[in-house]
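Q: Okay, next protein. This is Sugar phosphate isomerase/epimerase from Dyadobacter chenhuakuii. I've checked the sequence twice, so it should be correct. Can you predict the 3D structure?
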Amino acid sequence: MKYSMNLLLWGPQIDDSLFPTLELIKEIGFDGVEVPIFNTNPAHWFNFRKKLDELGLACETDTICGPSEHLISPDPAMRRHTIDHLKSALDCSLVLGATKLMGPYHSALGVFTGQPATPEEWQWAIEGIREVADYAESLDITLGLEYLNRFELYLTSCGDELIRFVDEVNHPHCKIMFDTFHANIEEKNIGDTMRKAGDRISFIQLSENDRSTPGKGNVDWEGVFKAIKDIKYDGWISIEAFSQKLPVANIWRKMFESEEQLMRDGLAFIKSNLS
């Protein structure tokens, strides 16, 4: 098992100012970091990659799509733009040495029609992700698609929908990234959903129900850790937690003592349950 820390805990600005944070992440005992790709200019990431290499930290990447990058838009130009945007994120992932690009980018965050996804929207997403997966394969990177809860996304908002989606994409470089925060909202049994996804899962984000320190809230952690063992998962386990530093998360109160406390307590909790 390898342990990672998602850098969104420190907000959306990912640049050289985070170098002391990377040093602390390494000192605490993490094997790597999740780097959000909001800047899709590959040149932006060369210095960051150098620092990761100096510290011996591995890296996987995440990205999202907003209203201007919507893969299920009825506008063909928007869909083409979104595919190009995701290919640029993959180029940045290559610079960073990542083998996975993860996120809910099969559709746009916070964009709704007031209706369920149509068969046409579903097919646009399948076709778009299949093209992106082809490009990812050429870079030896695997997509890790994520479902979000119903308040953030409508194309896939539960495990069954995302499993069906990935199966229909039917590409060896298109897998699932599983996030316990959204599962805690949408699933009747998180562990059963993880077992159903099985070896489609290529990355796991452990996130508390309030986005604070894992183990301090009401997620069914016993069920989560049992499922991880049941499916014989042995890849990345990452802590995803947010604070007031990430405005889009709408967290306006202090959820934990400090980032360092969250990392130390969270990592100890996870290791104690997976040992």
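A: Here is a summary of the prediction. Residues 211 and 260 are 15 Å apart (CA to CA). The two ends are 10 Å apart (CA to CA).
Q: Noted. On to the next one.
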